[in-house]
Amino acid sequence: MDTAAATSSLENKRSKFGKYLFLLPAVSLLLLFFIFPILLTVIFSFSNLTLTGSESQNFQFIGLENYTQMFRDPQVFKSIVNTVIFLVFSSLIGQQVFGFLIAILMKNKNTIFRRVVGTIVLAGWVMPEVVCALCMANFLNDSGTLNSVIKLFGGTPVQWLYKFPMFSIIIANAWHGTAFSMLVYQAALDDVPTDIEEAAVVDGASNFTILLKIILPNIKGSIITNMMLNTLSTLGVFGLIYMMTGGGPGDSTTTLPLLMYSEAFGSFQIGYGTAISMILLAIGVILSFFYVKASKVKI
Predict the structure, then answer these.
(1) Which regions form coiled coils (predicted)?
(2) Mean pLDDT of the 272-285 span
(3) Would the pLDDT of 79 be above 90?
(4) Which of 9, 113, 230, 257 could be disulfide-bonded to 91 (CB atoms 3.0-4.6 Å)?
(5) How far is residue 164's CA from residue 141's CA, in Å, rounded to a whole number?
(6) Where are the CATH 1.10.3720.10 domain residues in the chain?
(7) How distant, in Å, are the alpha carbons of 36, 66, 80 from that of 275?
(8) Looking at residue 61, what DSSP letter applies?
(9) CA gap 16, 31 in Å, rounded
């Protein structure tokens, strides 16, 4: 009996070792391309590392000096405000609302209608960020399509990228990312039990009541998941803003990614730039934590 038990225990250990062995490639890639860069960024944020000069080779750890300088820098505070405004209006409101509205309007429509509308909406999403930025810049510039339409109806052209730069990049990012939300909500709405909706219609419930009491509770998980994904992707938007406004006029559209780039590669202050990036990481982690708590998923 002791020999059999020992053999069984050895086989169990081998089985567990085999499972961990198969996980080794995935864990190695995760450590190499995700955990290690984050740790390296944290280390550099406490240093005076520069892109050129003597500090580029012989950098030193300077403690919290970068963070002290950062929180005394009014441009950092301005960038945080710009980032929050851009995030809320282009992602949490723009992409979410437009994506849901398109999905709900396409619900129960015929296949041809859904394919045509879906293709039009997807056109903005499949474009690379830089191409999307160029399209929207040409649409909103002084002699662009929008001003041409305004002049056609007797209006006065507007310098959208100069007078309303934040509005311009919000519209551009909302257009670029709405298709993803539409796809998520289409899949979620297709999974809502139709018999419950039909029963509510028979009981005399209005469309608004069905939406509020039946549809939204059933797709709550998809809403929160989509919000989290949109939040994380929007926090890192760089190319679209850089190509459209360059963070200007002045610093009116300078978000944290643009400020981080400017300090790290414009002013060559890698240490200070990585310290700014830690704010971006902290915002993403905090918001993700609240999203997970709202979805009631155990972590």
Answers:
(1) none
(2) 90
(3) yes
(4) 230
(5) 11
(6) 65-295
(7) 16, 6, 14
(8) B
(9) 21
What is the model's pLDDT at position 250?
87
Q: Give the rounded distance of the alpha carbon of 204 from its chain centre.
A: 40
Does residue 164 have a pLDDT over 80?
yes
User: Residue with structure tokens 């000096």?
Assistant: 65
Residue 285 CA to residue 269 CA, distance in Å, equals 25
Q: What one-letter code names the amino acid at 4?
A: A
- For residues 242 and 130, what is the distance between their CA atoms, to the nearest angstrom? 9
Confidence at 117, pLDDT banded by 50, 70, 90 = confident
Type of residue numbered 267: S
Phi and psi torsions of 247, nearest 5°? 90, -5
Whole-angstrom Cα distance, residue 245 to residue 135?
13
Q: Quick: pLDDT tens for 257-272.
A: 999 999 988 888 999 9
Residue partners of 158: CB distance under 8 A and separation at least 6: 147, 150, 164
CATH 1.10.3720.10 fits 65-295, yes or no: yes
